[in-house]
Amino acid sequence: MVTNWVWIPTILLILYSQTSWANEIYITQSGDGLSLEMQQRSKDNYISYNETGDDNTVKVYQGMHDDGSIDTDETGGHEAYWTITGSNNDLGSYQTDTNRSGGGGSPHHLANIVNGDYNTVEHIQMGKAGHDGFVEIQGDDNTVDLYQRGNGGQKWADIVLTGDGHTVDVDQRGSNSASAAIDLTNSGGAYNFTLTQNVTTSPDSYSVTGYCTNSAGCNLTINRNN
Hints:
Structural class: mainly beta
Number of domains: 1
Helix content: under 10%
Strand order of the largest sheet: 1-3-5-7-9-11-13-15-17
Distance between the termini: 46 Å
Strand content: over 45%
């Protein structure tokens, strides 16, 4: 358990093991103004993170990249689950499995549940196995960027946002199928949503449910190429 008071401005956790491939981190954090970075540099990693507070910056790296690099041909198997209550938080999850010589790897799973306003959530999943990304947000003016790229595994995104003024960008690339399910509900301020699917060997699919009560309308952009 990490408890952030005024006197703990920055925390860096690094877990790297050559002998054990099952690494787990559990953190519960309460407070404002925390800068936290977690690094798991091997395969088969798990993180559970629960936060209550505002103005926090939290980054999770599993296998690394973007761009803390590393990933010396590990084979994936990364999971990260976040629950955030607060506003003005900057949250980033980065999972990779380049696996240049092995030709495969285990899948990646990411889930964010956020209750608050003006939060930024970034998901980046790269590698040859499957990618699952889930984001659920209640609040206003939140930003979600989800990027999935890889050959040899399905890319799947499920994003549910309730509130006003959200900006959502989903980008899925690489061979094998890609699917995205998006549910956007607002009660006044317009949302902006962009979906890009660029896969080469299998079909892509998407479903978008949007309730826009803004008199000026909401923005929806779909780009597909396969």
